[in-house]
Amino acid sequence: MKLIDSHGRTINYLRLSVTDRCNMRCFYCMPKEGIVSKGHDAVLTYEELLLISETAVKLGIEKIRITGGEPLVRANIINFLGRVAVIPGLQHLALTTNGLLLPEMADDLYKAGVQRLNISLDSLNAETFSSITRGGNLKKVLAGLDAAEQAGFPPPKINCVIMRGVNDTEILDFAEMSLSRGNSIRFIEYMPAVKEDNWQRYCISGEEILDRIAARYPLIPIDRGTYCGPSRDFSIPGARGSIGIITAVSGHFCSECNRIRVTSTGQAKGCLFADANTDLIPWLRPPNREGLAEVLKGIVSTKPERHDISQDGYTHSNFTMSQVGG
Ligand code: SAM
Ligand code: SF4
After folding, report:
1. Per-residue pLDDT tens for 254-275?
2. What is the pLDDT of residues 161-176, one digit of tens each?
3. Structural domain 13-324, CATH architecture
4. Average pLDDT over residues 36-48
5. Contacts (Cβ under 8 Å, ≥6 apart) of 215
6. Would you list the domain boundaries of the chain?
7. How confident is residue 61, by pLDDT bands cut at 50, 70 and 90?
8. Which residues have any ligand 1 atom within 6 Å of their CB?
9. How far is the CA of 89 from the centre of ligand 1 (A)?
10. Sign of CA dihedral 207, 210, 212, 218
């Protein structure tokens, strides 16, 4: 079965958030203060998350990415991942993490059946890293990268949000990691998720990022993978890893969008920046598989053609990324 939206896009990818809590406080993702984590009753149980995953896969979802908040801070996450990994028909299970807990958890994640890890890492400089994450420890994340490979994972993909005046001097250092360590690097444009005056000052377009890399290295466009969605990918000759850009703000990425999202409180979203959510709770409590399948199909069929954020006039989204899962 295939899920095709009303604009002809095949939807094969679900981003599933399992918590809105996090052990870091990246300034572009969470406000400094005033975050009230959802109570236990508001957050979906693992049974409910599993029901959503199974129903989505039956409808045509082939890839599930587990995200958060920080997914590794949720208790018993390994057991849950092991149950998702064996859903019949699921082709690909991935997880996005800030990497802090990987030194102790990478082995168990691998054994549970997670196939691929994305690690968010915006600076290779300890001070800049600590300032972006409001106190995060770079050494631990780098140890997490190593632990992932020692556990058997392919070199993790690095998600790197590039912000002018914050970490843009490190673009080439990250690009170089695709050569020296074999990591694939995903450069993500800064998105206005947290209220911040004059947020446009941080914006660097994906094109500028590519230009800066191309001034140093030849960049060869590479084939788009089945699940890569809006990313445009390139490689430096001789590199094991690729270089991708996600032009969420500047660019025309909506036509390639292949995903839907479900938050840890059961809010389904057809578009990251859409204000409208669909509350799945009525089909989860009590569980109603047929009803849930119909609602998920509805989210796909009403998926907007494109988002309307741009650098002009937009202030910020009405949710934080930690609530939606990026
Ligand atoms: N805690 C995990 C992590 O950091 O990888 C998973 C959740 S995090 C919300 C998922 C992704 O969203 C991260 O790669 C993060 O960099 C990205 N993200 C969060 N806020 C963003 C923003 N304002 N603009 C661009 N990307 C953002
Ligand atoms: Fe936490 Fe990830 Fe958001 Fe950073 S980007 S605050 S690590 S959820």
Report:
1. 777 889 999 999 999 988 777 7
2. 999 999 999 999 999 9
3. Alpha-Beta Barrel (3.20)
4. 87
5. none
6. 13-324
7. very high
8. 22, 28-29, 67-68, 70, 96-98, 120, 159, 161, 188, 190-191, 193, 321-322, 325-326
9. 28
10. negative
